[in-house]
């Protein structure tokens, strides 16, 4: 019983989120143009779920996959064409470039 008294907050039903967790959620909100609900700033599990929902929309999700880039580079070699630089920053543009340049 004395161990539980030495560790306050360890057995709380919903402990407060850490400072790093709040900072990460705030950074995600800034990047995605959304707002972190105030109620989640006092709920660790709720904030964690919010982060999981919003981090997939981060910058890395927009980049083409390595397989997509490799396929586009093979097409570019065969057709002796350059892949536009913006295609390497947006998977949708890379997909369109591949569709319009793949050998038929």
Task: Outline the structure in words.
There is one protein chain. The protein is mainly alpha-helical and 104 residues long. It is 54% helix and 0% strand. The chain has helices spanning 2-6, 19-32, 44-55, 66-79, 91-101. α2 (19-32) packs parallel to α3 and α4 (66-79) runs parallel beside α5 (91-101). 9% of the residues are buried. The model has no long low-confidence stretch (mean pLDDT 84).
Q: What is the terminal separation in angstroms?
A: 74 Å
- Strand % is under 5%
Radius of gyration: 22 Å
| Class by alpha and beta content | mainly alpha
Mean pLDDT: 84
- Which of globular, elongated, flat, extended, rod-shaped describes the shape? rod-shaped
Keywords:
5 helices, 104 residues, 54% helix, 0% strand, mainly alpha
